[in-house]
Structure formats: structure tokens, C-alpha cells
Amino acid sequence: MLNFTYSNKTIIHFGDKQIAKLTKAIDKKRKVLLAYGGGSIKNNGIYQQICDALKEHNVVEFSGIEPNPSYETTMKAVELVKEQGVDFILAVGGGSVIDGCKFIAAAAKFEGEPWDILAKNAPVKSAVPIGVVLTLPATGSESNSYAVVSKLATKDKFAFGSPYVHPEFAILDPMVMSTLPERQLTNGIVDAFVHVMEQYLTFNVNGKVQDRFSEGLLLTLIEEGPKVFNEVNDDVRANVMWSATMALNGLIGSGVPQDWATHGIGHEITALYGLDHAQTLAIILPRMMWEMRTEKQDKLIQYASRVWDINEGSNEERIKLAIEKTEQFFQAVKMKTRFSEYQLGEEVVDTLITQLERHGQTAMGEAQAVTLERSKTIIANSL
Amino acid sequence: MLNFTYSNKTIIHFGDKQIAKLTKAIDKKRKVLLAYGGGSIKNNGIYQQICDALKEHNVVEFSGIEPNPSYETTMKAVELVKEQGVDFILAVGGGSVIDGCKFIAAAAKFEGEPWDILAKNAPVKSAVPIGVVLTLPATGSESNSYAVVSKLATKDKFAFGSPYVHPEFAILDPMVMSTLPERQLTNGIVDAFVHVMEQYLTFNVNGKVQDRFSEGLLLTLIEEGPKVFNEVNDDVRANVMWSATMALNGLIGSGVPQDWATHGIGHEITALYGLDHAQTLAIILPRMMWEMRTEKQDKLIQYASRVWDINEGSNEERIKLAIEKTEQFFQAVKMKTRFSEYQLGEEVVDTLITQLERHGQTAMGEAQAVTLERSKTIIANSL
Fold it and tell me: Where in the numbering of this chain does the Fe-containing alcohol dehydrogenase-like C-terminal domain appear (chains A, B) (predicted)?
């Protein structure tokens, strides 16, 4: 096992009717920015629950944070935060709104050009404190220190992280899933699954707790994910939501190497072709697993056995079957797994490789083994 | 799944040579109480590493916190804290030292008779902040809010909990295990195992993540625990240490019912007969499982299957075999599992029942189903 430092300060309020806890979770002395996306929270009752909980608080609103939150939009909120003297940001949404709010929180306190936080890894030295009401289980952003923000003008998509933007609290009420569009449920389940895989499917350092926890999350998503579309009940929603949070709150990745090469390629697909984040991961992951089958053999065999109960055949046969099962799981939660299903063809290969090169993504993964050449093979195999 | 609120603020520094992180983890403006037990840290190099890390800090020492820390001893430290104006407590030890320090931290700030914190659940409203260097993986006390303290004069053993005594940081260097006496390793492994069981082996609320995480910890302890005595290496130590912390940091018990009846009886055995805490748990747990086999049938069958790969036979046969395997695991880590092995006989039954009654322990467990009568059966079956 590798050395690590782990902490997670987010206070999780999980379950039915937890939104009412906002009243005490945010100090009444604070001026609150209530930030959200396209306004669906006004139709599903969440907005009203929040207004009820914050009726004695001083609140200003900012709406319109889009999927793949943009620098352009979030900078408008930064102005509002400064103008109004906001000293607490309540992000109400999924990963995009939360990530956008993390950037707003850091940019509002940043001296200099905030774009440098994203493009140049300029250090964040303070931020407006953040709380979250999660409306879409997927990214884990509600209890981690990371965010991804895009610049529309240049089609760049960058990540940043800072303990200062780690949410103080997160309210997770699984009932919010009951009004989500099918596409968002699909995205959330696949996103969480691939987050686990990025931390699990690496070279083996004998981190037995981390491996078992990762496998537990994968098994839960495999068992419960497809039910979200058919035999959904409170426990199904709760299990999916808690899995997605645990998938990327730092715990399962502590003390083990991490990969993130599938995300590396996926981010470029979203930036160039506008596919949803999870859609890109479902296209790339199966071919990434196959391309890296030699380096990752031990863990792939373990994955085949413990997650899919595949215990017979040659190593290559087991790995192949485990990858097929993975792709079938994506399909079972109504996700496409090929470029061609989005009317994208051979032209993507060179375009994506050029973009990866431009962003210096020439040696991705836990062992820096995903070269441009191997990325090209992976992308070409995913058409 | 049940509603829950979960947070854990402890910053974990895990791995080789992490003790050096003390230098930055404790503000130099603070006056530090370095508190420890019988002095073994002076022989194994830990004391020296701590002194090196704190050479520029203002430190006073308090040693002699005993196994099952006593009110009498800890109150001497409370006086020292007040006299010397200590404003940070560094607990160096296992669960006993940490628990003792939690009580010292709370008692030093308590207005009134500190014993009331233990005996009357008097609310703790502040505490001296605490950090930990863990020397014995076992209780999980290094990153939770709970402590157990005994009063020698009356043979009472009480628990208390408060977020104010939750450690700010904990340093977990698995190498500290290399110089531990066999008995302490045995105790630690069994203690961690039973902590998981108390949160796992309850009625089923379909908390799939919690169940899988619990099973992951049990499997890790079963695989790695016995190796500690033979084929030990860095990874074995790291896996056991991380399992013990994760076993009782609040995570696996969030959103599920919790039992603690085995601990209820176990605490009385320690208070009356001086057996180590884990020794008492290993005596009681197998018979507790058997006595509660109807109420806990679903989870016992799941435990048999997922942890011990027992998938054939009648329900009763599977449960019986799983309990036998559990007891054999305790024996494999060199733990005794019967009163008679400690030269205790029938006389313990009535004495323990009287003590349980005196402490109001007449309906223990997640369903309050462990009555005095059933406790009597469990104890009698454990002779």
C-alpha cells in the first residue's frame, strides 16, 4: 500500500426530508448565493423546500449554470458575489452546478486572472465557503475538493482542486432522483462506475480494504443501477446515491495508484463534440481496459472474479468476458458505448489525438503508459 | 436504508515515517500534553521520533494511562492540564490511551463533577483539542468521537461520546506493529472484527454499500490477521491497521441499525474479572450469534455466503458453520474463546447478570431483544 493523507470534512445529511437541515447548516449571519442550473428545481419541489428552509436567511440567486459549466457563465456569478458581498455559496444541482460553484468560490477570492486557476494551476489560497444540495448522484463533487470547468471560446476543459473549495456540508435526499430525466440517471450511474474503475483498475499494491470497497461499490451499482429504470424504490435510490458519493470522496483512492486516462480522453470528446461526460467514459473505458490488459492483468483477473464471478478460462478469455459484461452493464442502464451511435466516425481519431497532444496528454494513466499511439488505438477501436 | 448524518474530521496521515508530520500538524503556539501508557514507546523508537518532531514545541508529559483507562488516573492528568495551561493533547498509544485522553480533554473544560460525563451522560460543551499517534490498531478511537473509561473504586465501566473529543489528526504508521507483543496484536484484530460485526450483523435495511464495506473489512481481517504472526510484511500490517480504523470511524454504521450487545456483556466481564476487552468479545460473540439466529437470520445467511463462501445446507446448518468459522478465526489469531480458558466457571453467570441488571442492560441490541434471560443463556453457553 502507498503512503497517504486522507481527510474529508464534508458533513453528509443523508435521507428523506434532509433539505430542512439547511436552516441550521448555514449561519444566518451569512449572505447566501443560491446557485443552480436550468431551473428544473422549480418544477420538482426542491426550490420550494430550500426557500422554506432559508426563509430567514439573506439570499441572492444565480441561475443558468450549464452542463459542463463554463468559465464565461461562472465569471458572471463571480461578479455578483463581489458586488453583493456574498459569503456563502449554496450549490443546488449535480456535478456541473457544484463544480461551477467551486470555481466561483475560488475565483471570487483570487488575486489576478481567475482563468489561471484552471489553465496554469495557479494556487488557490482562499475561497467562499460552499454547501451543497445534491440533485443528481454522479460525480461525487458534493464531498470532494475537485472541479472541472470549460472555456467555451477555446473549447478547453480543465480541472482544478483545492481544500478551500471542499463543501462544508452536503444534503443527499435520494427522493430528488424521482423526477430526474432518464438520461441524467444513466449518466450518473455510469459516471460513478467509471470513477471507481479509475481508482481500482491499476497495478496492484495490495490495498485490500480499498479493493474490497471499490468492488462493493461496483457490485452495488451493477445490482441497483438497472432497477432505477424499472423496479425503483427508496432503497434503490439510496444505494445508488450513496455509491456515487463514496465513489469519489477520496476514500477508495487513498493509498493506491490512480489511473484517470479514460477521463483524459473523455474530457476532450466532450470539449470537441459536446457529448455528456458519462457518455464519453462509456465509449472509452471498454477499449482502454482491453488495450491495457497486459499492464493491468492482475487487477483485471481480480475484477472478473470478484465483480462478475468469472473464474474459468484463460486469462485473456476472462478479461475479454469481464469487459463484455462491463459494456453490457452500461447498456443495461441505457447508455450507448460507441462513437457511431452518436453519428461520429473516423474523423474523430485524428482530431482527438491533436487535442490530446495540444494539452500534453501524451503519457496518461497510473504508469504513464497511455501514449498518444495507444490513445489512437483505443479511440479507433471505439468507433 | 435509514437516514443519517455522517462526518469525520480527522486528518489521517498513513504510512511509513509519518510521525515526522507532527511538526506541522500541531501549531507551535500550543502547549502540548504528550500522554502515553506504560512507556513501551521509549523502547521501540516511537518516543524518540515524537521528540524529534516536536523539538521546537512546548511539551509536558503524562505517562501511566493504563489498559482500560481509569477515572482515577485520568483525573491526575486533568489537574496537570489545568495547572500547566495545556491547550493541545497528543495521545500516543492504542485505544486505552486515546480514550483516556478524550476524557482528560473533556474533563479539563467541564464545569461540575467530571464523573457525570460518564455516569450521567452530562453534555460535553467543549474540550482541549486532541491529536493521535496510534501505536496499536484496534479500537478505531483515533478517528471517532467515543471513549470508554472505568472507575476502579466501583468497578464501573462507562462510555461517552462528543464531537469535541474527535481527534483533529491521527498518524498511522503500520511499522509500530512490528514491536507489539503478540497479545496486543491478537486483541487488536479481534476487536476490529467484532466492531464490524456489531454494525453489520443486524436486521436487514438493504444498505448495500455498508454491507459490502463491512464484508470487505471482515475478509481483509480474516485474510491478513493470521499472517501478522507468521508471514508478516508491510502490506499485511498496513491492511490490518487500515481495517481497524475503518471498522469504527462511523462510516459502515451510517444508515444501518447497530447492535453492541456483545460489547454490553463484554464490558461487564472486563470490569468484574479484568479480562482484556477483546478477550471478552471473542467469548461472547459466537454464542450471541447463535442465540439471535432467528432475528438475524437474513444477515447471518449473507455473512455465511459472502464472508465464508458457505452456500449449501439448511439455513441452520449454514449459520452454525459460519459461527464455527468465526470462532476458528479467533483461534487462528491466537485468541481464546471460552470462560474456562481463563479459569472462570459457572459463578460468572449470576454475577454478570446482576451487574447487567444494575446497569440497566436489560434489553440490548438493535431490536432490544437481548433480555437478561437471553444474556444468561449466552453467558452460560460460553463457559
Answer: 188-354
